[in-house]
Amino acid sequence: MSNGNALGNESYKAGSFIFLEGQKDSKNFYIIRTGKVAVTKESQIVEDDAPPHLDTGDFFGVVSCMSRHPRIETAKAITDVDLIAINRDHFGTLIQRNTPIAMKIIRSFSKKLRFYDSEITRRTLRQASEEDPQLLYNLGEYYFNQKAFNKATYSFQKFLKYCPASANESQAKMKLQTMGMPFQAPPVNSTGSMARQYPNDSMIFSEHEPGEELYIIQQGKVKITKIINNQEVLLAVLQPGDIFGEMALLENKPRSASAIAYGDVVMLAVNKANFEQMVVSQPQIATKLIQLLSERIWTAFKQLANLLYKDPLARIYDTLLTQVLKKRVPIEHKTSYTFDFGQQELIKMLGIDQNQGNLVIRKLFENKKFTLMNGKIHLEDLEELEKQVKYFSKMQELERKREISSTKKMG
Question: Is residue 300 part of a domain?
Fold first, then answer.
């Protein structure tokens, strides 16, 4: 039971729930003033350093609050707790008054997102993601063979910068000479200004390159790409106002993807030295960054949770529900919805082979509430998605408990 007041303070008795996973009203997040709180998820995702409970000064509920999505976790009071409840609309005020909290949230989110991305890559590609400046040479080779010489030049120059005297040094220099390019690139900015300009199709940064700045797009668009199985895959196209490159800056690790100018681009660059100053002086940018990280974490969590379903039909229902939630479409009784993709696009989203995909799609359409409309998947009642996902989640949880029980008996 909570007691709210004008200051945003809430109190809960030991054993009571603060919020439940799936709850749609997520306008607040919380900082613990006193007491202990347990935060759990139905999906059994093992997090690298998830504590058994949260204590004084810790925060929770930020992801769903700032992304405006349903809760992805359940929060329960272990002891009597007093909480500071913060409405998302007042987040800028919190940043101005308490910058360390904002920095703590940003760094925590960056670490969590890095973990989720690594787990998704490991589960889908059957290997851990590898980000190593030595691989800049391979990236240069790929672009050289594709005759994308400006990108090849960038990759080889960065390889020589970060990996001097390595095994491929002479080959990288030979390729640069073949293209008539110098071994070193001119400095991006020698004035110390935060402004950056990039012409169309130029490399802003490449995967495997150590990160030193995050970027805020002011004009133009930016493509985010990654080389997967010797193919350049387009991950996203970013627009003015978008922020990117924050994980490498905050985590001090190599870039996990490449950023390429899509048309002429004007951006602001924020480095480690001026990052905290930016958070203080421009809380609206810090708020946007946390909203961005929250959206990415929510999406990555849903994607990783989807991969844990053993039944491919369960994965289809869950994928469709996630697509609806990402667009923030209200799920109401007998509300119809047409997705902006068809059967083949859905199979690609799941990352399964064509034959298995065709079989599971046929199972989906055995549900008469699903039809095709102009080549797009159409659903007569959105509540059917929630109903099916809850059913499969319950079945998977029962199976997990049976496996645990069986293991204990064998032990």
Answer: no
Residue 4's pLDDT is: 39
**What number of other Cβ atoms are within 10 A of residue 167's Cβ?**
9
More confident residue, 321 or 278: 321
Q: Whole-number mean pLDDT of the chain?
A: 86
The domain tally of the chain equals 3
Residue 206 domain boundaries: 133-282
Q: What is the dihedral of CA 334, 363, 315, 20, to 10 degrees?
A: 40
Q: Which domain CATH number covers 383?
A: 1.10.10.10
Say yes or no: 144 and 218 in one domain. yes
| Pair 313, 276 in one domain | no
Q: Is there a single domain that holds both residue 157 and residue 77? A: no
Structure tokens at 161: 């910068």
**Of 77, 97, 117, which one is at a domain's C-terminal end?**
97
Across residues 182-203, what is the average pLDDT?
81
| 314 and 268 in a common domain | no
The CATH number given to whatever domain includes residue 248 is 2.60.120.10
| Residue 96: strand pairing partners | none
SS3 per residue for the chain: CCCCCCCCEEEECCCCEEECCCCCCCCEEEEEEECCEEEECCCCCCCCCCCCCECCCCEECHHHHHHCCCCCCEEEECCCEEEEEEEHHHHHHHHHHCHHHHHHHHHHHHHHHHHHHHHHHHHHHCCCCCCCHHHHHHHHHHHHHCCCHHHHHHHHHHHHHHCCCCCCHHHHHHHHHHCCCCCCCCCCCCCCCCEEEECCCCEEECCCCECCEEEEEEEEEEEEEEEECCEEEEEEEECCCCEECHHHHHHCCECCCEEEEEEEEEEEEEEHHHHHHHHHHCHHHHHHHHHHHHHHHHHHHHHHHHHCCCCHHHHHHHHHHHHHHHCCCCCCCCCCEECCCCHHHHHHHHCCCHHHHHHHHHHHCCCCCEEEECCEEEECCCHHHHHHHHHHHHHHHHHHHHHHHHHHHHC
- The predicted-structure confidence for 114-146, as pLDDT tens digits, reads as follows 788 778 877 776 444 566 889 999 999 999 999
- Cα–Cα distance measured from residue 389 to residue 313, given in angstroms and rounded to the nearest whole number: 10
Q: How far apart are CA 313 and CA 300, in angstroms?
A: 20
